[in-house]
Amino acid sequence: MKGEWFSEERGKSLNSVGADNSPVPVVDTFGRPLKSLRLSVTDRCNLRCRYCMPETDYVWLPREDVLSFEEIATLTSYFVDLGVDKVRLTGGEPLLRRDLPRLIRLLSQNRGITEIALTTNGVLLAEQAQELYDAGLHRVTVSLDTLKPDRFRRLTGRDEFARVIDGIESVGAAGFPDLKLDTVAIRGFNDDELVALIEFARHYRAEVRFIEYMDVGGANEWSMDKVLSRDMMLERLSRHYGPIAAIPGRGTAPAQRYRLPDGTSFGIIPSTTAPFCAQCDRSRVTADGMWYLCLYAIGGMDLRKPLRLGASPEHMRQVMRDGWMGRRDRGAEVRKELEAVGLREGRLIGIERLREDPHLEMHARGG
Ligand code: SAM
Ligand code: SF4
Ligand code: SF4
Question: Most CB within 10 Å of its CB: which of 45, 59, 205, 302?
Answer without folding.
Answer: 45
